[in-house]
Amino acid sequence: MSLLVSSLVFLYGTVFGSFYNVVIYRIPKGMSVAKGRSMCPSCEHTLHAIDLVPIFSWFSLNGKCRYCCKKISPRYAIIEFITGCLFLLAYIMEGIGVRFVLYATFWSMLLIVTMMDLDEMVISEHVLLIFTAICVVCLLILRQPIEDHLLGFGVGFGAYLLIYVLAKIFYKKEGFGFGDVELMGSMGLVLGFRGSIQALLLSFYIALFGIIIMRVIGKSLGRMTEIPFGPYMCISGFLVSLFEQPIYDLFEKIILGH
Question: At the N or C end, where does the chain have fewer CB atoms within 10 A?
């Protein structure tokens, strides 16, 4: 595997990561991602090309805006770096081709949804629709059994819809966001029937682990405390896309005892 190509794929991914930063910031605020140039979140000064080089610009400016000198969160560079790593991982696994596009697109969706949910507790339908549509096109090109993926959608969407309804009845209000239902449907459509079930179950285990960690570090959590569930679902979807068979074997041992 060529080091040059691997490096180019990583850099290519960081460029997408830079765009994802725009998507994560603008969509929850109702802003267009197609119109308007990038600007400093503090002084709103329009940023130029030299300010927008993924990862490099943040480090070269010591994490500060060139114009107002206020600190810029390192998360922008981190998201660019993570996206580059995701693209590189997809390349290592599948080379350059349709499967590369499938994995890179699916993982990009999970990353964007995670950050949006952590920031604003919002899951964008537009993000889910666009990225899932690209994944479906890839699945069709690869001649994957579409019935299995439709069944995965039905299981994921149906199971979380039931949880959504029950939570609403129990809490007398929306205790489980409908965006989570749509997210699980999208994940199920990409992962297929077996992957959908695994991601569904695994998300609750990961959420439980996350809650335990929060309690250990002293964060107060009450019965009505709102916790973004999307990140736990996205982590489970990412893990299942990578380790479907080992996770299946693990669940089989836990549930069936062998």
Answer: C
- Total domains in the chain come to 2
Which residue segment(s) compose the domain that 187 sits in?
97-258
One domain, residues 24 and 124: no
- Answer yes or no: do 135 and 62 share one domain: no
Yes or no: say if 234 and 113 are a contact pair by the CB < 8 Å rule. yes
- Amino acid identity, position 81: F
Dihedral sign, Cα of residue 29, residue 225, residue 109, residue 193:
negative
Q: What is the pLDDT of residues 125-156, one digit of tens each?
A: 999 999 999 999 999 999 999 999 999 999 99
Amino acid at 94: E
- Exposure string for 222-249, b = 16+ CB within 10 A, e = fewer: eeeeeebbbbbbbbbbbbbbeebeebee
Question: Can you name the residues that pair with 46 across neighbouring β-strands?
Answer: 39
Residues 2 and 42 in one domain: yes
Write the pLDDT tens digit of every residue in 123-133: 999 999 999 99
Paired with 39 in beta bridges are 46
Q: Angle at Cα 144 formed by Cα 113 and Cα 233, nearest 5°?
A: 25
